[in-house]
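ok so i was messing around last nite and threw this chain in just to see what happens. nothing serious, just curious
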Amino acid sequence: MNELLEELALNAWPGVRQVHFDHWVLRLSGNHTRRANSVNFLGPSTLPLDFKIDFCEEAYSRFNTSPVFKFAGLYDSSTIDSNLANRGYQIEGNAMVMTHDLDQLRAVPSVDYRVESDLSAAWFDLAAAMLEIDPGRLPYFEKILSNIVPDHGFASVWHDGKPAAIGLAVVERGWIGLFDIVTSTQFRRMGLGNQLVLNMMKWGKERGATAAYLQVVETNTPAVSLYSKIGYTPLYRYWYRAKTG
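result:
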């Protein structure tokens, strides 16, 4: 299942540029999120490891950035991990994938829930503001969202006529993935994030999904608590190696 969810997540959050290289996938998106700017290992290597890492470093340097390598435990990557550690790459961004069986979806509250199949300027501006995205990364953020191929929806919950929370949902092969869930600062601690997630899951179920997944940083205690209360449980963990200096 881990392999499937990693593949679905790659499709749900596509890189602006992407290169397949001997079971590795290099994704480059102007440094907007590690997910879209990392090297992902999808299978064992057939080429020499040092050659492959050198290739990645050269490829990323062409775009004035350093490569980030993602470890999701799909196969034994301990040799890659130790090689990168010797090259000065540090562990960062410890996160986990959590899942939920939609047969166990609890009662969904009736709220002002809206979802759009096409990216609108209004939703994009809301997301940029609520996620506090650096202006220089906005073009990459827009390209990522515009490049999504599987069935998807740009969701929001409104309160008293104002946008309160937003999120992205992507449905593929019986799964709905939830991304960029955020509540506006003025509407936090009102349960609106909970309402948004439940309505997104219901929307996915109506479109054929039987299970849901999401990715969350382990140190993001409020988010982990929210998802756990809804019924999400950890499936596996992943992390990155990057050079900070």
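not much to say yet. The longest helix spans residues 192-206.
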